Amino acid sequence: MQTAFMKAISLIMTADASLIDILITTAKTSITSSLIALIIGVPLGILLGAGAFKGRGILVMLNRTLMGMPPVVCGLLFYMLFSGVGPFRHLRLLFTVEVMILAQTVLITPIVAGNMESFVSGISELIKETAKGLGLGRIKTFYLIMNESVYQIFSAYLLAFARAIAEVGAVSMVGGAIAWKTNVMTTAIMQYTNMGDFALGIALGIILMAISLLVNIVLYVLQRRLSR
């Protein structure tokens, strides 16, 4: 095990080609899906948190249910949609990075929306009263709420990114963990460990934990700012 650990450090220090390819695929998948989830989830979360319309409670409950959707269920859904018998089979997206991004986006968008909804519901009434006193319309009120939620938006994105980079169920089902094509850090750790290549698995594990630590440090700083 000590030898495998030393080899893992060597792979990181020498920027092993297979390691770099996995990191690039992981970054492409996780960053893209989390950004799309942010673009969709932030407005949706503000709408659910500050809106006053019929059916809002049902939508909030539905979104909170989707926040806990098992990744394998999401992966199964997309596999059925894009497989050889699915309605979108002609797009030939199965076992590509693109369908992995789609699956992760569906998986983490409710997390962004729910995070924003919880925060906005606590500040919306005061902001709406201020906006009403200033004679602001709905669009300007929306932007005012967004402006007051800047730190929370960053926090929501980091949570989405952390979920995306650590996700394994959905991406393994729709991506197939194909070497030099769709292998991301989590699927590669499982794959190479099963093959007995502990060094590469340990190297990826070290990098994944380092990224997780960095994300949590930034989240801690943001939460400290939000609590002031």
Topology, element by element:
Elements: H1 2-13, H2 17-50, H3 56-67, H4 71-82, H5 97-134, H6 138-148, H7 150-166, H8 169-175, H9 185-194, H10 198-227
Structural class call reads mainly alpha
Main sheet summary:
none
**Strand content range:** under 5%
Shape: globular
**Helicity range:** over 70%
- Please, how many helices? 10
Task: Provide the succession of SSEs.
Answer: HHHHHHHHHH
User: Uncertain runs with pLDDT below 50, 5 residues or more?
Assistant: none
Q: In oligomeric terms, what are we looking at?
A: single chain
Rounded to an integer in angstroms, the radius of gyration calculated over CA atoms is: 20 Å
Terminal Cα span? 46 Å
Q: What is the tally of beta strands?
A: 0
Let me know the average pLDDT. 91
Outline:
The chain has 228 residues and is mostly helical.
Q: How would you describe this protein?
A:
It contains 10 helices and no strands. It has helices at residues 2-13, 17-50, 56-67, 71-82, 97-134, 138-148, 150-166, 169-175, 185-194, 198-227. The N and C termini lie far apart (46 Å).
